[in-house]
Amino acid sequence: MQIPNYEKARRRSHEEVLVRDFEMNANYSKLGLNKKYYLKTYGCQMNEHDSENIKGMLDKMSFKETLDMKDADVILLNTCSIRENAHNKAFGMLGRIKHLKNEKKDLIVGLCGCMAQEVGVVEEILKKYKFVNFVFGTHNLDDLPKLLANSFKDSKLNVEVYSMEGDIVENMPVTRVSKYKAYVNIIYGCDKFCTYCIVPYTRGKQRSRHKEDIIKEVKELVRDGYQEVTLLGQNVNAYGKDLYDDYELADLLVDVAKTNIPRIRFLTSHPWDFSEKLIEVIKNYDNILNFVHLPVQSGSNRILKLMGRRYTRESYKELYDKLRSIPNISITTDIIVGFPGETEEDFNDTLDLVNYCKYDSAFTFIYSPRENTPASRLEDKVPLEEKEQRLYKLNELINKYSKESNLKMVGNTYLVLCEGYSTKEGMLFGYTETNKLVNFKGSIDAIGKIVKVKILDAKSFSLDGEIVE
Ligand code: 5AD
Ligand code: SF4
Predict the structure, then answer these.
(1) Does the fold of domain 413-467 match that of domain 6-160?
(2) Checking DSSP bridges between strand 207-208 and strand 187-188, what pairing results, if any?
(3) What is the DSSP string of 158-203?
(4) Rounded to the nearest whole angstrom, what is the distance from the C-alpha of residue 80 to the centroid of ligand 2?
(5) Residues 144, 200: Cα–Cα separation, whole Å
(6) pLDDT tens-digit series, residues 13-45
(7) 410 in Cβ contact with 456 (< 8 Å)
(8) Ligand 2 center–CA 235 separation, angstroms
(9) How many A from CA of 257 to the centre of ligand 2?
(10) Of all atoms in ligand 1, which is nearest to the CA of residue 375?
(11) DSSP 7-48
(12) CA distance 32 to 52
């Protein structure tokens, strides 16, 4: 039993991070024969990609996936801590699973992901959800086969959560959701410690993967016919700082571009570490897509300071203008409203900045206090209703600019990676280089290919079009 500890989670050791290969006890390879698993994933792309590794391990153990929870022998929840609602959803799910477990005593239930790293969550599971078989954290994903094997032998709740980051494990098994686009981790953890954010505690110290390992993975994806990679990290712009003296994200992007993968994206950027070199590289390489997600969080300098973001609205605008000078670039953002003490004036500064930037789209959130974070200890007098009104107003403005940016595309033709059938009957769907969702008419041969699509109509969140030769 190993439970989480915030003291350890906050620490940033200067010790070198070990890199090792994934290993699995050969005895586990038949453990899942004739057994099914149900995996539910909450949260960001990092979690989605961790779930692809979880599926990879389960496949290696001979389990089959089911999309029907009632049909499963093993249920796994890969959880998210970023805001309270993600939390509530996972606990709601545990409530439903409790009923299933009453009917099916040998059902195995595991919980992992960011919530597993939270002291309060683990305490609650130990008290109220004892039917859970095992809990493991973000630093020991590769322990899953062992934990699962043990829970077939012993039904007692086992918690194995490490608060200090572990090694970087290479060559993890992976079962990717898509055959055409792939996530590739380049950096784990985050050292920014924005005052509202739980990630530096749940994901640990910033650790870059070695460039050779990343390039090897991308080359394998090219060999397998992948059309697009998204290089992932909580703060990809910090890539390399912990490993190299003279090799940063811009250099990595150039090396990835040279593999000739048709499309490269990278997520998420912190404005603080965005270098001139990176802007040049985006400009100069056709397969590095003109798309940047650049979270601003707030337009008020007072709030940015309280958030610990280390930039001002003026310096953000300067960076934004440089990026906007790249032809046809699409820029998106994240914004939090209702940070403790946010006044009407602060909020108006955010609206003002949105009016300046005219983002292509944005994710917007109401501030949610997270356990153990500095912001959660600040006095917060703004009533929830007020915060909801601010969010509504902000969303109206964001949607207006999204629609305007989409309308500008009508009548023009863009390259779209066709991913499959759309939810709209008889249509296909895919994303432009600038990450806009397009539903379009075309033949099924287009699936998995980059095709030319003429845009016929625009909405706030998607475009309609047709394939042109
Ligand atoms: N409350 C609300 N939103 C948050 N985010 C991170 N932490 C919080 C929080 N405590 C948002 C930020 C971040 C995105 C992934 O989630 O906008 O960029
Ligand atoms: Fe959280 Fe800030 Fe790190 Fe992003 S940069 S993961 S918001 S601490």
Answers:
(1) no
(2) antiparallel
(3) EEE--SS--PEEES-----S-SSEEEEE-EES-----TT--HHHHT
(4) 14
(5) 23
(6) 888 889 999 999 999 999 999 999 999 999 999
(7) yes
(8) 7
(9) 27
(10) 10
(11) HHHH----SPPPEEE----GGGGGTTTT-EEEEEE-SSHHHH
(12) 17
Q: How far apart are CA 302 and CA 221, in angstroms?
A: 45
Q: Which of 192, 203, 236, 376 to mutate to test the pocket of ligand 2 (most atoms within 8 A of CB)?
A: 192
Q: Confidence class of residue 267 from pLDDT cuts 50, 70 and 90?
A: very high
pLDDT tens per residue across span 443-468? 999 999 999 999 999 998 999 999 99
Ligand 2 proximity of 270 Cβ (cutoff 6 Å): yes
Name residues contacting ligand 1 (CB within 6 A): 82-83, 196-197, 295, 297, 334, 336, 365, 367-368, 370
SS3 content of the chain, % helix, strand, coil (to 5): 40, 20, 40
Q: How far is the CA of 338 from the CAs of 117, 332, 335, 455, in angstroms?
A: 26, 20, 10, 37
In the beta sheet, which residues pair with residue 184? 231
Question: Where do the domains of the chain lie?
Answer: 6-160, 413-467
CA distance 271 to 268: 10
| Ligand 2 binding pocket includes 337 (Cβ within 6 Å) | no
Closest ligand relative to 237 C-alpha: 2
CATH topology of domain 413-467: OB fold (Dihydrolipoamide Acetyltransferase, E2P) (2.40.50)
C-alpha of residue 449 to centroid of ligand 2, in Å: 34
CA distance 235 to 152: 38
Cα separation values, 252 from 181, 317, 420, 424, Å: 19, 26, 30, 38
- Sorted by sequence, the CB contacts under 8 Å of residue 206 that are 6+ apart come out as 187, 188, 189, 190, 191, 235, 238, 241, 242
Q: Is the peptide bond before 79 cis (omega within 30 degrees of 0)?
A: no
350: closest CA among 420, 403, 303? 303
Ligand number, closest to the Cα atom of 81: 1
Q: Which of 197, 273, 336, 370 to mutate to test the pocket of ligand 2 (most atoms within 8 A of CB)?
A: 197
Ligand 2 pocket, residue 252 CB under 6 Å: no
Residue with the nearest Cα to atom 1 of ligand 2? 197
Does domain 6-160 fall into CATH 3.40.190.10? no
- Strands 428-432 and 437-441 come out as antiparallel
> Which numbered atom of ligand 2 lies nearest the CA of 309?
2
The Å distance, Cα 109 to ligand 2 centre, comes to 30
* Sequence-distant (≥ 6) Cβ neighbours of residue 116 within 8 angstroms: 4, 79, 122, 135, 136, 137, 138, 161
Q: Is the pTM of this model over 0.90?
A: yes
Determine the Cα–Cα distance for residues 357 and 404; give it in Å rounded to an integer.
Answer: 13
Q: Can you give the pLDDT at residue 166?
A: 76
